[in-house]
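Sharing a chain and its predicted structure for anyone who wants a worked example. Both blocks are below, sequence first, tokens second.
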Amino acid sequence: MLDVRRLHMLKTVAARGSIAAAAQALGLSAGAVSQQLSALRRDVGVDLLRPDGRTVALTEAGRVLLEHADRILAAVQEAESAVAAVKGTVGTTVTLAALPSTVARIVAPALSELGSQQPQLTVTCLVTDQAQLRELTLGAVDVVLGQRYHHLPDTPPRDIAVSPLLDDPLLVVTAAGQADERPVALRELATHNLAMPPATTDCGQAILHACHQAGFTPTTHYITADIAAQLTLARAGLATALVPRTAIDPATPGIRTAPIEDHPILRLLFAATRHTETENPTTTAVIAALRTAARHHIAATGGCA
């Protein structure tokens, strides 16, 4: 009989590209992963992996087995959720992946609420902007607080359930005293030096898309995905930044923020879990806390759900 844990290891190796990377993600040694994959190879009687330069790739048999493994692992997830629903109680551990820009306004309030309502639940929070949904599909995390910019197609991966939280507009950030508080037409920024994320990021692409719609290509002397650095440059009067509202502390001194009136740039913040027919009480509790924190943020800022 095939071992479910070994199937999960095969899936992780295929996604990470190497046994060493998979071992790191699984919290195991490379030797332990190799031994389990060798045992899986003996179980099926055929090679499942082959060298591919400095990485490994699936053989034809490996690809066939992985297709079945995906269904098997999904069925195991479904069974776990069904049993948890029958128990009707929130579990003891859960892993949340969240964007750095959401920690202050959404994640921290949500975890505080969870701590008071579900004191037995220990939440491990992975703060990262890299491939959160892939980590979800691999089972490395249980809930993702992610983002999608509105100019991009809404195509979540298969077997992922997405719950919208709020629309989070980008605001124009300048040094205090350099601009009034009126809404800004995006085309006015054609003469500004912008502090922008790299064009390879979702936010950078969204800003470039909106600027091109407004009829100009932005001037960028400062390229950084670090929002704290963008705000520092704006406060110093060295650049104008376009920053999501949830990432800005309204009490930050020395800056002025204004909405974009003609070509708004919106990111949708969402909570995502692996799709199951039966709701899991633990992930449901986490998403409920994130949704409550989002509602409180909307109420405090006058934003929109």
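Comments welcome. The chain has a mean pLDDT of 88.
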